[in-house]
Amino acid sequence: MTTVVADGENSAGDPIPSQCAVIEVHVAELRQLFNSIDPSPFRNRDLDTKAEEFIVGWAKDFPGDKRLALLVDLDRSAGLPDEAAVLSDSIHEYFRQRALAQRRRLRDLLRVGRTSLVIGLAVLAAAIAGGDFLFKLLKGSHVGEILRETLAIGGWVSMWRPLEIFLYDWWPIVKEAELSDRLAAMPVRIRYLNAASPEAWKGDWPVASPGNEAVAAKPQAR
User: What's the CA dihedral at 6, 59, 182, 163 to 10 degrees?
Assistant: First the structure.
């Protein structure tokens, strides 16, 4: 299979098949893609909120059956030999964790839905029974009819939350989890644009973390 990145381009990372829908991100440094205050190791670091929103938003514009790929245009020269692999692993791990979190959210929502359904059915049954009892107690008067209808309406209102969950709330979460699965499996490639100095990579992620960037960029004393 051919790749989107043309032959001879200064790039590294996963091959991008020609049939992929390519998400392109342009940054000056790789660390701009990640949360600057996250102390986690490189491969477990969270994406920057804006970078995540950009990638996810673009991915949603493509058909659901289209394989995705990420091409990062980087305004510097290549750094360590494994930086493309580290970037790919980090992005894949982030979206794997995102998919797991969404599925946990779905399980929690369905558990709430089941509990709400039991409560709602109990309230509805009690409201209908209570309304019928009051209607008979008041011997079919208008007051009894009003009370019966009021209780019936209240009983059906109690069913609103479980019906909302099982009819509407669950499937957007499933869609988000499926999208995260696709993002967790997409090829990731860096295209180097060489706009910065040849030494710019020494102060960039994954060479330097927020706590030691200055140390990493400082030349060794002789």
Answer: -170
Distance from C-alpha of 104 to C-alpha of 161, rounded to nearest angstrom: 19
Task: State both tokens at 46.
Answer: 């969270």
Please give the tally of structural domains in the chain. Answer: 2
91 and 191 co-located in one domain: yes
User: Which pTM does this prediction carry?
Assistant: 0.81
Structural domain includes residue 2 = no
Same domain, 22 and 72: yes
Residues 168-205 have pLDDT tens digits of 999 999 999 999 999 999 999 999 987 767 777 777 87
CA–CA separation, 143 and 54 (whole Å): 59
- Please tell me the distance from the alpha carbon of residue 193 to that of residue 78, in angstroms, as a whole number: 9
Range of the domain at 124: 114-176
Asked if residue 211 has pLDDT above 70, the reply is no
